[in-house]
């Protein structure tokens, strides 16, 4: 089984061992409340003061305030609330305040959401204005200079979480030099990665987050410039000199303190030059593995720990899945739902074409990573490239062996079906959806197929039978719909007896009127998931609800025991071929048969003929394998199970590459 390589450091990081020790100490031996005046409290107070002093030195806080809180989202709220309360007071006192709340177009959502929320709540009615960025992701300083006289508050970030683009804070500061606007800089992705000397800047507020730099989640800091307006977000017992009440998160503060101390001592984290070297190695492997790759932000202006890229012809879902199969954890550079990626607003703001902003991948690593892990990651990236190539998904792909039979492609719960006849290289598609057209074309092209017919189950006109080698696709009108029956037939045959129908593509048609046309076990392939989770049969539908639902779930521990007592089990990987090829086998590294879910309808017939063969399906997260097992059970195969939670829950501990 391959060990996980975590390359998603901009999302969160593992906690540094020294930070874990410090947190355990603060929860165990030195658990006191820093507000208590007895010995236990005093010890906690020393710890609290030590962590703050270290942070103050590192960030160059000068006379400013540094408040511990729960993280950057809280820090952003506090900064925005403070600024807006001050703006409201100034306006009420008749002072001139600008009318704009300006924020960088690529800010983390916490910023515009907080601005909109507090602007509404405080009844300020200021205008939110997204400051454009250039093609390199950097703020448009000419636009900012023009806006500065009207800006009441400006929010920018030190470095972008998706692209790693580093902002020109000196340039922004200069653009704001003659404006009396307040200025917040979200420093989350800059902590430990960029040299900060806050007192030398005109930044008023700077939120930080512990979990992006090897401290636990739930601890953060807010810098407030000396003299900058402040309004507490949380009132109560007066902790943090009344600026942020609530008993301090001492475990978090101790851990963050340990990280900051390590940063100050300089022995734990790789130098900028080393990190640049690591990024160059990853980029070289990516270029070799994924022809046509484009990096979405130039390396000279980005954090050396972040790479953001897109690959022509590959969706982010496909790239995420193949990396995940190789146990390389990366994220899509955009909000990604199960099937589709919403385009990244960050990349859109940079003016990148749609295909790049909706298919981007972010690879980001922590500054504790070592050279051996980078080597391992490079090897796996190249394995992913080879897997995609062997599945015909890259432009220089080897031609994969032509698939034969029925293939299901799905988009948002709606199915398109392909019938492929490998011997004659003839194909037909039923209910092709526009969203799936590119995949359909690629599949036909890579297998050298000629499309004989593109059929629709909602077609009103009569269509002639379609011959695909030894297969016959027979249209039939049923009520207002057209369904297509598929079976083997010799050249002279123009009809199919019910028992000879292997598959029936039924669109939205009701099943009852089909009884005269289909055999009891002909596989009914519908047009959407709402009609049947995958495919069904008349016999399965007649039986539905008559038997109690069996327990088909195996967890990782249950699977190990199951495999021991059933040595003839067939493990079936229902992930795509490229995911299977990129992975190091099935659960526990065991060999597995690869039947992608899209090919299940073709394989079912063979499994129905060996009903006593135990089958265990697995996939990445357990979703696809659940569909497979429920489909087979419904069709009457009683000897099948699936791995709940998928491979994700069976992986070994990640390579953290942390200094001990
Ligand atoms: N700002 C940026 C740039 C971030 O990357 C994040 C985290 O994703 C946040 C703010 C929010 O930080 P937290 O998780 O500490 O609330």
Automatic annotation (TrEMBL):
Cited Pfam families: Aminotran_5, Rhodanese
Domain named Rhodanese: residues: 565-658
Record bears the keyword S-adenosyl-L-methionine: no
Keyword entries, A-Z: Iron, Iron-sulfur, Metal-binding, Pyridoxal phosphate, Transferase
Cofactor (UniProt): pyridoxal 5'-phosphate
Enzyme class: transferase
One MF annotation (Gene Ontology) recorded for this entry: cysteine desulfurase activity
Listed EC numbers: 2.8.1.7
Catalyzed reactions: (sulfur carrier)-H + L-cysteine = (sulfur carrier)-SH + L-alanine
Family: Belongs to the class-V pyridoxal-phosphate-dependent aminotransferase family. NifS/IscS subfamily.
PANTHER family (UniProt xref): CYSTEINE DESULFURASE, CYSTEINE DESULFURYLASE FAMILY MEMBER
Protein name, per record: cysteine desulfurase
Species: Pseudoduganella violacea
């Amino acid at each position: 089984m391959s060990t996980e390589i975590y390359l998603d450091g901009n999302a969160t990081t593992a906690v540094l061992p020294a930070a874990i020790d410090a947190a355990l100490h603060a929860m165990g031996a030195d658990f006191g409340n820093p507000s208590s005046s007895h010995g236990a409290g005093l010890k906690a107070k020393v710890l609290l003061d030590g962590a703050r002093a270290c942070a103050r030195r590192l960030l160059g806080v000068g006379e400013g305030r540094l408040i511990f809180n729960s993280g950057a989202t809280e820090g952003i709220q506090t900064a925005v609330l403070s600024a807006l309360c001050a703006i409201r007071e100034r306006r009420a006192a008749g002072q001139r305040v600008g009318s704009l709340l300006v924020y960088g177009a690529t800010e983390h959502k916490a910023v515009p959401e907080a601005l909109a929320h507090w602007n509404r709540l405080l009844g300020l009615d200021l205008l939110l204005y997204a400051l454009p960025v250039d093609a390199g992701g950097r703020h448009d300083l000419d636009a900012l200079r023009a806006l500065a006289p009207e800006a009441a508050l400006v929010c920018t970030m030190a470095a972008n979480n998706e692209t790693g683009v580093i902002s020109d804070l000196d340039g922004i500061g200069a653009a704001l030099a003659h404006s009396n606007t307040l200025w917040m800089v979200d420093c989350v992705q800059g902590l430990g990665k960029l040299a900060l000397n806050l007192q030398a800047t005109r930044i008023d507020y700077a939120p930080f987050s512990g979990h992006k730099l090897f401290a636990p989640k739930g601890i953060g800091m807010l810098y407030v410039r000396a003299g900058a307006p402040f309004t507490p977000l949380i009132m109560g017992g007066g902790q943090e000199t009344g600026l942020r009440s609530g008993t301090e998160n001492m475990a978090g503060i101790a851990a963050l303190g340990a990280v900051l101390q390590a940063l100050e001592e300089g022995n734990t984290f790789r130098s900028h030059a080393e990190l640049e070297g690591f990024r160059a190695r990853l980029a070289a492997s990516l270029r070799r593995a994924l022809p046509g790759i484009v990096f979405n932000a130039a390396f000279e202006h980005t954090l050396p720990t972040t790479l953001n890229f897109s690959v022509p012809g590959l969706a982010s879902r496909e790239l995420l899945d193949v990396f995940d199969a190789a146990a390389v954890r990366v994220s899509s550079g955009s909000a990604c739902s199960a099937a589709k990626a919403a385009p990244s607003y960050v990349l859109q703001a940079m003016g990148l074409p749609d295909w790049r902003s909706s298919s981007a991948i972010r690879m980001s690593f922590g500054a504790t990573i070592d050279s051996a892990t980078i080597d391992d990651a490079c090897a796996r990236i190249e394995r992913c490239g080879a897997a995609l190539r062997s599945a015909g998904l890259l432009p220089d792909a080897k031609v994969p062996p032509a698939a034969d039979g029925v293939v299901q492609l799905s988009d948002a719960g709606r199915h398109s079906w392909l019938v492929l006849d490998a011997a004659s290289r003839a194909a037909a598609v039923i209910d092709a959806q526009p969203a799936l057209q590119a995949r359909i074309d690629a599949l036909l092209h890579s297998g050298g197929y000629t499309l004989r017919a593109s059929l629709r189950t909602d077609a009103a006109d009569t269509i002639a039978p379609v011959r695909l080698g030894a297969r016959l696709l027979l249209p039939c009108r049923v009520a207002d719909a057209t369904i297509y029956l598929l079976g083997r037939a010799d050249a002279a045959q123009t009809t199919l007896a019910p028992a000879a129908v292997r598959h029936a593509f039924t669109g939205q048609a009701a099943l009852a009127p089909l009884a005269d046309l289909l055999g009891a076990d002909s596989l009914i392939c519908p047009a959407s998931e709402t009609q049947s989770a995958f495919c069904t049969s008349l016999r399965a539908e007649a039986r539905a609800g008559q038997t109690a639902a069996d327990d088909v779930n195996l967890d990782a521990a249950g699977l190990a025991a199951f495999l021991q007592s059933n040595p003839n089990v067939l493990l079936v990987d229902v992930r795509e071929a490229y995911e299977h090829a990129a992975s190091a086998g099935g659960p526990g590294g065991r060999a597995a048969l690869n039947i992608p879910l899209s090919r299940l309808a073709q394989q079912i017939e063979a499994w129905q003929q060996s009903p006593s063969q135990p089958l265990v399906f697995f996939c990445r997260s357990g979703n696809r394998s659940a569909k497979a097992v429920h489909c087979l059970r419904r069709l009457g195969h009683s000897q099948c199970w699936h791995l709940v939670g998928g491979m994700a829950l069976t992986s070994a501990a990640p390579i953290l590459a942390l200094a001990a």
